[in-house]
Specification:
The protein has 467 residues and is of the alpha/beta class. The protein contains 19 helices and nine strands. The protein folds into three domains: 197 residues, Rossmann fold (3-Layer(aba) Sandwich); 103 residues, no CATH class; 158 residues, no CATH class. The strands form three sheets. A five-stranded parallel β-sheet has the order 2-5-8-1-9, with helices on one face.
Length: 467
């Protein structure tokens, strides 16, 4: 896929067509950009070339060698003795408009902490860098993500908090990903050391995108937010966490990419934006492509679908079971849609979640308080009946003993039940016994009981909302 306009080629940067929109979006937003790639893939050349093309006052620091004095200058006391000032040099950061922190994965921990405020706040020693527009960084693959053929001594995973401050994280292409024509252009020594002058094309592209961005935000902010929220929920189910800040950053990145692309949302572009908005690669925890693609496909539908299917997607993708229940009781558009939602959930939830869902929701459905049609109610009844049949007698223990087996979580369940009282204990016992009799896993009984109670309470509060 390529949605490039060839702007980077005008700088003598070849092979970056796929990621060009992301690079320009980073310039449009002014948010921190991190390039990750093997040695010699043009990371530093790209960023230095951009600074030349935009005529920025640029600083290029090697994080593996840098001392803090290189950034701030030499400290000296003020004449009145009331504080300390820093004596600037041509290399200090105070007048910089763009900063490249090269080899950031080789940075000493104490310097990494100091660079945190530079990346995140554009401050040094608490002092704001008034002229700084862009903060960029580059690194080789970290040790957690290296193979035998590509090992970079001293390149270590970034601290996750620091990595999360980079809005865009781009894995740059290597030699085997380049087209034949680009390989020849890269290999040509004629471009070595050339100053990047593109006759203002890059600046013009950034300026045009900035002008479009307010209208893009007005038109498509809700779509970008829906996409980002759905992706976060879908990836969470695959044990990939996006921080709340990262979800917000993703939505903003998608809007910037849409402005760069000309103003029309595009599925390929959103997927590119998703890949370039995940910080996991910086600490060696790359998200697998199939999981990412599946999350994107669901999120794209959710962002641009309307009506019943959008609501159904929203229920299915909600991470928390109690919130699924709330959506069905409070926000379901009609009984037929409610029946479809219940049937889909019963088909897709894991056995433990399915048990909790049925046990919590069925009584309210039976009393006619929930907009779930006949087919959904019947499916719930079938599941709930098997739970309610287990009356807390010793028959389930006898069944296990007759086969010479013992459920591995039996003692844990007993300890949790011993702490409970009243109806809460009765409900937990019903669910625990059902799972134990059917030899289903109960790996964390305390968490299971907490989730069950949370769902029961959510049913009650939701019914009050619609009363």
């Amino acid at each position: 896929m390529s949605v490039s306009s060839g702007v980077l080629r005008g700088l003598g940067v070849y092979g970056y067509d796929v990621v060009e929109p992301v690079v320009i979006a980073a310039l449009v937003t002014g948010k921190p950009l991190l390039l990750i790639g093997k040695a010699g893939t043009g990371k530093t050349f790209l960023l230095n070339s951009i600074s030349e093309a935009l005529a920025l006052e640029h600083r290029h620091y090697n994080a593996s060698l840098i001392a803090f004095d290189d950034l701030v200058g030499f400290p000296y006391p003020e004449e009145a003795g009331e504080g300390i000032r820093y004596l600037p040099t041509p290399a200090t950061v105070w007048e910089a408009e763009s900063v490249l922190i090269d080899e950031i994965s080789r940075c000493k921990p104490e310097h990494q902490n100091r660079l945190f405020s530079l990346v995140h706040e554009r401050r040094i020693q608490g002092l704001k860098l008034e002229r700084l527009k862009y903060c960029w960084a580059a690194m080789n693959p970290c040790a957690a993500d290296q193979g035998v053929e590509d090992y970079y001594e001293g390149s270590v995973p970034l601290d996750q908090a620091l990595a999360d401050r980079f809005a865009f994280v781009i894995e740059v292409p290597d030699w085997d990903e380049l087209e034949d024509g680009d390989r020849e252009l890269v290999a040509d020594p004629e471009g070595d050391g050339a100053i990047s002058r593109d006759e203002g094309r890059l600046a013009a592209r950034v300026g045009e995108s900035l002008k479009r961005l307010p209208a893009i935000r007005e038109c498509f902010r809700a779509n970008a937010v829906a996409y980002a929220v759905t992706v976060a929920n879908a990836l969470k189910q695959k044990r990939v966490r996006l921080s709340p800040r990262r979800v917000r950053v993703l939505a903003g990145n998608l809007l910037a990419l849409t402005a760069v692309h000309g103003g029309t949302p595009d599925s390929r572009l959103f997927f590119l934006g998703l890949k370039a908005s995940l910080p996991q690669l910086a600490w060696g925890a790359e998200v697998q492509e199939p999981a990412l693609r599946a999350a994107h496909d669901i999120a794209w539908d959710q962002a641009f679908l309307e009506g019943r299917e959008k609501w159904l997607n929203d229920v299915l993708l909600e991470c928390r079971l109690d919130r699924k229940i709330e959506k069905i009781i409070v926000h379901c558009p009609d009984e037929d849609t409610g029946a479809v939602a219940v049937q889909r959930l019963l088909a897709t939830l894991d056995p433990v979640s399915r048990t909790i869902f049925s046990f919590a929701l069925y009584p309210a459905v039976l009393e006619g308080h929930v907009p779930v049609g006949t087919e959904g109610a019947t499916a719930l009844a079938k599941m709930a009946a098997s739970i309610l049949d287990v009356q807390g007698e010793i028959s389930w223990q006898e069944r296990l003993q007759a086969t010479g087996t013992r459920h591995p979580e039996l003692d844990q369940c007993s300890r949790v039940l011993a702490k409970l009282r009243g109806k809460r204990k009765e409900r937990a016992r019903q669910v625990f016994y059902h799972l134990l009799v059917n030899q289903l896993p109960v790996p964390e009984p305390e968490i299971l009981e907490r989730d069950l109670n949370r769902c029961i309470l959510k049913v009650s509060s939701s019914l009050r909302k619609v009363a």
